[in-house]
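Working notes for the structural subgroup meeting. M.R. asked for a predicted model of this chain before we commit to crystallization trials. I am recording the input and output together here so anyone reviewing the notebook later can reproduce the run.

Input as submitted:
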Amino acid sequence: PDAALMLRYSCGGRFITLGLDTTAEMDHATAVVPEGMNFCASYAAGEICPVSGAGGLANRYHNSSFIVCALR
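Returned structure, recorded in token form:
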């Protein structure tokens, strides 16, 4: 609630799975953000992050993230 700015990024893969309701995820995210908070929302084309596997953690490309960064 004390954030000055919120950055939101949703993966393009998540956007595609919404079918005809393409704004559903961003509509929900906007509804739960405090009134008057500044934000920027965008779709990203995939993410690279550590994923646990047989050999330990390794960076992998995937398409399922919803990332929120709140800046104070």
